[in-house]
Amino acid sequence: MTHIPAEDLATEIATQIGSLTLGTNIFHSMMRAPDSVVPKACVFVWGSGGPAPERTMGDPDEIRRAIVSVQVRNPKHKLGSDLIHEIVDALRGDDIATYLEVKVGMSEPLSFGQDTDGLHIFATNYVMTYLEP
Q1: Contact call for residues 74 and 60 (beta carbons, < 8 A)
Q2: Can you tell me the distance from the alpha carbon of 114 to that of 36, in angstroms, rounded to the nearest whole number?
Q3: How many other C-beta atoms are found inside a 10 Å radius of the C-beta of residue 68?
Q4: DSSP state of 4
Q5: Is the pTM of this model over 0.90?
Q6: Domain span including residue 115
Q7: Given a cut of 90, is residue 55 above it in pLDDT?
């Protein structure tokens, strides 16, 4: 089975957070400027690397640890902050099928302040561990 961690995490976030819908206000992509498809208030989820795969004791499967970034953008600081914390809380201890472990990569989400359009940006990372043949 081929894993696509960022896509799987975006799907799980949309499942856990009732106000988010894939392709409407949560996207499996890097952050994009608001337009007719991408609203000002939304979530972006994408893969951002990870350490080299490991093999143990001659096992043909690789242990992989993907780092997945989650960014929330919102015109209102409090709404963006509340949503990134809601995502972290919803996924704490959550299991995603076929993954050995999904853990938040930082103690507290980051606030990047406002972008050039005055939109507030918040972020966190997840480490998703899985076996890949």
Answers
A1: no
A2: 21
A3: 24
A4: -
A5: yes
A6: 5-132
A7: no
